[in-house]
DNA sequence: GCCGTTTTCGGCCCGACTGTTTTCAGTCG
């Protein structure tokens, strides 16, 4: 077992102990142990072998014994016994907002509730409100939480759906008889959440053997829980994680139409069909053919065959309707069809994953990350990034072990040494994810922030402030000249928690007026600021930073979802700060992130022809 | 369960908020 696997087990023990009502400090000891393990820079096997594990601060005799057992055998008796002593439904109940271990324990002890279903019934029967410490409002909130959870349960994060779909598409393409295979639907459109998966395969429909082989392969994939339909052209399965998937096998000449149709969105398809009708054509998943009553010269069948023969790709399908190719991410029925008009093509050249040269806002084990500073830099280097920005939490985020001034200064010092050592090709920008306090002031003073290359300002508490207060709070932070960018604008967690109430339009206005960047937090759970806002905001000069908010090396890959969302927001690489090269300042001075910001901001302003629009100029070259 | 120039027991991180209370417990980040 690796140190991070062992840390996971220690954390699970902490959760189980909480549900049992154990001593909170004992619980924290397990959490600390997990953290300590993750920050360990030496090889765990060697530390154990040398007998020095118990000398590590935060790991005493008991944890040494447990970690050793896990490392050697991959199992821990104490953990397994603990697991069987707690009903699994209790752990699941922790996912309901406003329900923590203490209340779950009370519900279990007093009403014998050990599942979400049982809790829903008890709430509906009014039993929960009668318990001491609970009341009508709590009961109502719990019911709503359960209802939300059920509604959310029908959708899945893009990231998770993509992980399931990727190998299936790759596998389908390798099968004999398959000419093309693609995932369609909201997955292909890069939507933040996905309802179900759609796979479109082109194959010879008359070759029933080949079709049977494809269907057999699809239904026999590991993780398939049940086959819900198996017909001539459509097969449906459900995976163990609840995700549904449809496989459609179509003749090759129909592939482009089926792919377009099942990619959607519904609104986009409606508009496309209207456009076709205006041209005397009828568009469907089967093809593009003369609309009824319009096929006067040729017979309908002949015209049909002729049109189909001409169209073998989506590009040709769009062209047949006088449109440029519309990237799937843009097909939301907003303005994309008007913009794609071939005679006046206004479609943007969308940013691509390969345009990124680095990313800001990443955590390390100094706060709540699981990879050390060196591990994060090495991972960025492996990705070929020119630079990586480190932004650990600030001191008010106690729960995330936020850095105080002294620890931040130590980290900056460490980053400077790494940069000058030449150990890594990737340059490291020193930053912070600085808490925006309840009144809009920042968690660090100006002097502390001045030593940094960049500052991400984020809200991490008092989520329930009213819209007016929250908006004023965030704008006050944006107006602080030390702030480079605003972190996760609404704090939402997709499928789990609504964001805090904030007037996005006012925040965007303030960011533009102050030359502050807004983050596109690329964590698959956040994708915040929402893609629906980017198009308009960027057109008015707002600069975006695609930030992975990585808490371990593997999370750097989250920029992939960030790019999806940026594309859905019509963004080109010019709109995104981390597509810019690491700046080499004149006179050989050390590059800083602020120069990058200044360059890009000025570039954006120049492009729009109003260079004076940004009242803040950030031209500092070095500290 | 861990720690220690207050060292083998007693303390361990905290502020805001909500709903339940009538001074506080639980949840969240």
UniProtKB/TrEMBL annotation:
<keyword id="KW-0237">DNA synthesis</keyword>
<dbReference type="InterPro" id="IPR002054">
    <property type="entry name" value="DNA-dir_DNA_pol_X"/>
</dbReference>
<dbReference type="InterPro" id="IPR004013">
    <property type="entry name" value="PHP_dom"/>
</dbReference>
<dbReference type="GO" id="GO:0005829">
    <property type="term" value="C:cytosol"/>
</dbReference>
<dbReference type="GO" id="GO:0042578">
    <property type="term" value="F:phosphoric ester hydrolase activity"/>
</dbReference>
<feature type="region of interest" description="Disordered">
    <location>
        <begin position="603"/>
        <end position="623"/>
    </location>
</feature>
<dbReference type="InterPro" id="IPR027421">
    <property type="entry name" value="DNA_pol_lamdba_lyase_dom_sf"/>
</dbReference>
<keyword id="KW-0239">DNA-directed DNA polymerase</keyword>
<dbReference type="InterPro" id="IPR010996">
    <property type="entry name" value="HHH_MUS81"/>
</dbReference>
<comment type="function">
    <text>Repair polymerase that plays a key role in base-excision repair. During this process, the damaged base is excised by specific DNA glycosylases, the DNA backbone is nicked at the abasic site by an apurinic/apyrimidic (AP) endonuclease, and POLB removes 5'-deoxyribose-phosphate from the preincised AP site acting as a 5'-deoxyribose-phosphate lyase (5'-dRP lyase); through its DNA polymerase activity, it adds one nucleotide to the 3' end of the arising single-nucleotide gap.</text>
</comment>
<dbReference type="Pfam" id="PF14791">
    <property type="entry name" value="DNA_pol_B_thumb"/>
</dbReference>
<dbReference type="InterPro" id="IPR016195">
    <property type="entry name" value="Pol/histidinol_Pase-like"/>
</dbReference>
<dbReference type="InterPro" id="IPR002008">
    <property type="entry name" value="DNA_pol_X_beta-like"/>
</dbReference>
<keyword id="KW-0808">Transferase</keyword>
<dbReference type="InterPro" id="IPR022312">
    <property type="entry name" value="DNA_pol_X"/>
</dbReference>
<dbReference type="InterPro" id="IPR022311">
    <property type="entry name" value="PolX-like"/>
</dbReference>
<dbReference type="Pfam" id="PF02811">
    <property type="entry name" value="PHP"/>
</dbReference>
<dbReference type="Pfam" id="PF14520">
    <property type="entry name" value="HHH_5"/>
</dbReference>
<feature type="domain" description="DNA-directed DNA polymerase X">
    <location>
        <begin position="1"/>
        <end position="332"/>
    </location>
</feature>
<feature type="domain" description="Helix-hairpin-helix DNA-binding motif class 1">
    <location>
        <begin position="91"/>
        <end position="110"/>
    </location>
</feature>
<keyword id="KW-0488">Methylation</keyword>
<dbReference type="Pfam" id="PF14716">
    <property type="entry name" value="HHH_8"/>
</dbReference>
<feature type="compositionally biased region" description="Basic residues">
    <location>
        <begin position="614"/>
        <end position="623"/>
    </location>
</feature>
<keyword id="KW-0235">DNA replication</keyword>
<dbReference type="InterPro" id="IPR047967">
    <property type="entry name" value="PolX_PHP"/>
</dbReference>
<keyword id="KW-0227">DNA damage</keyword>
<protein>
    <recommendedName>
        <fullName>DNA polymerase beta</fullName>
        <ecNumber>2.7.7.7</ecNumber>
        <ecNumber>4.2.99.18</ecNumber>
    </recommendedName>
</protein>
<dbReference type="InterPro" id="IPR037160">
    <property type="entry name" value="DNA_Pol_thumb_sf"/>
</dbReference>
<keyword id="KW-0234">DNA repair</keyword>
<dbReference type="GO" id="GO:0003677">
    <property type="term" value="F:DNA binding"/>
</dbReference>
<keyword id="KW-0832">Ubl conjugation</keyword>
<dbReference type="InterPro" id="IPR050243">
    <property type="entry name" value="PHP_phosphatase"/>
</dbReference>
<dbReference type="GO" id="GO:0006281">
    <property type="term" value="P:DNA repair"/>
</dbReference>
<dbReference type="GO" id="GO:0003887">
    <property type="term" value="F:DNA-directed DNA polymerase activity"/>
</dbReference>
<feature type="domain" description="Helix-hairpin-helix DNA-binding motif class 1">
    <location>
        <begin position="51"/>
        <end position="70"/>
    </location>
</feature>
<dbReference type="GO" id="GO:0140078">
    <property type="term" value="F:class I DNA-(apurinic or apyrimidinic site) endonuclease activity"/>
</dbReference>
<keyword id="KW-0915">Sodium</keyword>
<feature type="domain" description="Polymerase/histidinol phosphatase N-terminal">
    <location>
        <begin position="358"/>
        <end position="438"/>
    </location>
</feature>
<dbReference type="InterPro" id="IPR003141">
    <property type="entry name" value="Pol/His_phosphatase_N"/>
</dbReference>
<dbReference type="InterPro" id="IPR003583">
    <property type="entry name" value="Hlx-hairpin-Hlx_DNA-bd_motif"/>
</dbReference>
<dbReference type="InterPro" id="IPR029398">
    <property type="entry name" value="PolB_thumb"/>
</dbReference>
<dbReference type="GO" id="GO:0008270">
    <property type="term" value="F:zinc ion binding"/>
</dbReference>
């Amino acid at each position: 077992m690796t140190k991070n696997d062992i840390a996971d087990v220690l954390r699970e023990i902490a959760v189980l102990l909480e549900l049992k009502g154990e001593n909170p400090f004992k619980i924290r000891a397990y959490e600390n142990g997990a953290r300590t393990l993750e920050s360990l820079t030496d090889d765990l096997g060697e530390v154990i072998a040398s007998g020095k594990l118990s000398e590590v601060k935060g790991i005493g005799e008991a944890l040494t014994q447990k970690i050793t057992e896990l490392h050697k055998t991959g199992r821990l008796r104490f953990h397994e016994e603990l697991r069987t002593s707690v009903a699994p439904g209790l752990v699941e109940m922790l996912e309901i907002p406003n329900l923590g271990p203490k209340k779950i324990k009370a519900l279990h002890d007093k009403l014998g509730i050990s599942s979400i279903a049982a809790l829903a019934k008890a709430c509906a029967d009014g039993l929960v409100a009668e318990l001491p410490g609970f009341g009508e409002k709590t009961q109502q909130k719990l019911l709503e939480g359960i209802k939300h959870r059920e509604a959310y349960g029908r959708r899945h994060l893009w990231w998770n759906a993509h992980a399931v779909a990727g190998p299936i598409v790759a596998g389908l393409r390798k099968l004999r008889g398959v000419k093309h295979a693609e995932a369609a639907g909201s997955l292909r459109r890069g939507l933040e959440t996905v309802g179900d998966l759609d796979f479109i395969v082109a194959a010879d429909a008359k070759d029933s053997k080949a079709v049977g082989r494809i269907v057999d392969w699809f239904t026999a994939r590991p993780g398939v829980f049940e086959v819900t339909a198996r017909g001539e052209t459509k097969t449906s399965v459900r995976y163990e994680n609840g995700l549904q998937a449809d496989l459609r096998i179509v003749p090759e000449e129909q592939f482009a139409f089926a792919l377009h149709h099942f990619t959607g969105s519904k609104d986009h398809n409606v508009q496309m069909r209207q456009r076709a009708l205006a041209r005397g054509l009828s568009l469907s998943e089967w093809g593009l053919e003369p609309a009824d009553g319009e096929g006067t010269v040729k017979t309908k069948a002949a015209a049909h065959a002729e049109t189909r023969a001409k169209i073998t790709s989506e590009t040709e399908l769009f062209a047949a309707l006088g449109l440029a190719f519309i990237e799937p991410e843009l097909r939301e029925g907003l303005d994309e069809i008007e913009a794609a008009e071939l005679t006046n093509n206004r479609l943007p050249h969308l940013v691509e994953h390969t345009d990124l040269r680095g990313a800001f806002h990443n955590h390390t084990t100094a706060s709540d990350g699981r990879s050390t500073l060196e591990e994060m830099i090495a991972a960025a280097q492996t990705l070929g990034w020119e630079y990586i920005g480190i932004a650990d939490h600030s001191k008010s985020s106690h729960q995330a072990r936020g850095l105080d001034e002294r620890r931040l200064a130590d980290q900056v010092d460490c980053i400077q040494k790494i940069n000058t050592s030449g150990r890594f090709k990737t340059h490291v920008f020193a930053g912070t994810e600085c808490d925006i306090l309840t009144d809009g002031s920042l968690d660090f003073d100006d002097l502390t922030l001045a030593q940094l290359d960049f500052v991400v300002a984020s809200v991490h508490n008092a989520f329930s402030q009213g819209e007016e207060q929250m908006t004023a709070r965030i704008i006050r932070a944006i107006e602080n000249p030390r702030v480079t960018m605003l972190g996760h604008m609404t704090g939402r967690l997709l499928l789990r928690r609504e964001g805090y109430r904030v007037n996005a339009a006012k925040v965007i206005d303030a960011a533009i007026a102050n030359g502050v960047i807004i983050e596109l937090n690329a964590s698959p759970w956040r994708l915040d600021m929402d893609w629906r806002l980017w198009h308009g905001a960027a057109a008015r000069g707002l600069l975006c930073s695609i930030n992975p908010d990585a808490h371990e090396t593997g999370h750097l890959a989250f920029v992939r979802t960030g790019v999806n969302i940026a594309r859905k927001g019509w963004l080109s690489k010019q709109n995104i700060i981390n597509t810019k090269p690491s700046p080499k300042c004149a006179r050989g001075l050390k590059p800083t992130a602020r120069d990058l910001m200044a360059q890009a901001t000025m570039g954006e302003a120049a492009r729009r022809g109003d260079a004076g629009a940004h009242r803040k100029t950030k031209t500092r070259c070095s500290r």
